[in-house]
Amino acid sequence: MNDENHSATRAPDEARWQAIELSPATFGQRLLAWFDRHGRHHLPWQQEQTPYRVWVSEIMLQQTQVATVIDYYQRFMTRFPDVQALAAAEQDEVLHLWTGLGYYARARNLHRAAQVVVEAHAGVFPTHSVEALAALPGIGRSTAGAIIALSTGARAPILDGNVKRVLTRLHAVPGWPGRPRVERTLWQLAERYTPHERVGDFTQAMMDLGATICTRRRPACLLCPFEDACAAHARGVEHDFPASKPKTARPTRETCFLMLRDRRGRVLLQQRPAQGVWGGLWCFPQFDSLQEARDWLAAHAPRATLESPWSAFTHAFTHFRYAITPLPALVDAPIGVSEGERWYDPEQPDSVGLAAPVRTLLDRLASSATLV
Fold first, then answer.
1. Which residues, at least 6 apart from 274, have a Cβ–Cβ distance to it below 8 Å?
2. For the HhH-GPD domain, which residue ranges apply (predicted)?
3. Count of helix runs (H) and strand runs (E) in the chain
4. What gap in Å lies between CA 162 and CA 145, rounded to an integer?
5. CA–CA separation, 9 and 169 (whole Å)
6. Beta carbons of 321 and 329 less than 8 angstroms apart
């Protein structure tokens, strides 16, 4: 029996299982034929595919949609056209250009990795091996493979979220892909199918197929080049694959943001520690309770007036939620700032990284009632 023929004597379910047995050659031919006609060929990072440009795009695209990334990527590349420019930048400026993309550890790792490339590799990315690239901050095995495949054409399998979804459905691989056993199976499949020619196109095609056809919620199975060879589709259970991450209750933590303004409309911000929530970003002074905020004002700005709290809102992280209560306050007399603090003028904003809820509240402050 060849790759795609069914036996009329088999039971229906067994015959469908046989349909998934595509050889790597047939798989690659189908995928590349689809990519040549329907793939994405004009994204900004697909032009001049240097290791640096591919790397920046791959990091930005982690946990973030293409449509969101495009503008950020273009602004980032305009300011930091090469790894030397990024390495020489201040972290504040890097985080400023990342503001709104979320998962800020990506930006901090990007900045640090650029410095390592310049200091330890003379500004040249070590694309000779996946292991060498994966040793850089923030670069895992799949990202390293994508950088190598897309920028050099050398053979290096990848296994990002889109590829995991395609392979788990194609082979009806049970289990959450985050489990080591399941991930090992998927890496074996990725290794099996990755060709030795047109590796860059194949890599982009796998990502495109997952992003545009084999989507999480509404896969366009009738448009898929593997519609007749997909075990999940044959059974009508596409939405069961990949299996979801086991749910755990996300605790909610209550916190207060002290929005202290002076008569000039400036707002006091503090820089967060490098590690932890919103690491390295600038935020309002943050307290566990209203009383802690009052105590801080009594010690640092005793003439400040605490106004009525704004309605609390929730900001979700991967493992917990913040229930944030904004506390507006006004200070008449100027007060000095310590290291790691600054007066921020929303009318003439500094180029610093801001946590997403902080930026939202700053916008609201700027449009709120006129200071008296």
1. 108, 280
2. 60-212
3. 15, 8
4. 14
5. 25
6. no
345, with CB counted inside 10 A (0-12, 13-18, 19+), is middle
Q: Are 28 and 155 in contact (CB under 8 A)?
A: no
Distance separating alpha carbons of residues 107 and 299, to the nearest angstrom:
35
Q: Are 171 and 20 in contact (CB under 8 A)?
A: yes
CB 350 within 8 A of CB 93: no
Three-state DSSP class for residue 327 = strand
CA-nearest of 95, 90, 112 to 355 is 95
Domain ranges of the chain: 12-240, 252-367
Looking at domain 12-240, its CATH superfamily turns out to be Hypothetical protein; domain 2 (1.10.340.30)
- Rounded to whole angstroms, the Cα distance separating 144 from 127 reads 8
Fold of 252-367: Nucleoside Triphosphate Pyrophosphohydrolase (3.90.79)
Structure tokens at 18: 């046989």
| Three-class secondary structure of residue 329 per DSSP | strand
Q: Which of 14, 48, 58, 292 is catalytic?
A: 58
Helix residue ranges, H only, 153-289: 161-171, 180-193, 199-208, 231-235
pLDDT tens, the chain, 372 aa long? 344 443 333 334 444 444 457 899 999 999 999 999 999 999 999 999 999 999 999 999 999 999 999 999 999 999 999 999 999 999 999 999 999 898 999 999 999 999 999 999 999 999 999 999 999 999 999 999 999 999 999 999 999 999 999 999 999 999 999 999 999 999 999 999 999 999 999 999 999 999 999 999 999 999 999 999 999 999 999 999 999 999 888 899 999 999 999 988 999 999 999 888 899 999 999 999 999 999 999 999 998 999 999 999 999 988 899 999 999 999 987 788 889 999 999 888 888 999 989 999 999 988 774 443
Instruction: Give yes or no: 93 in active site.
Output: no
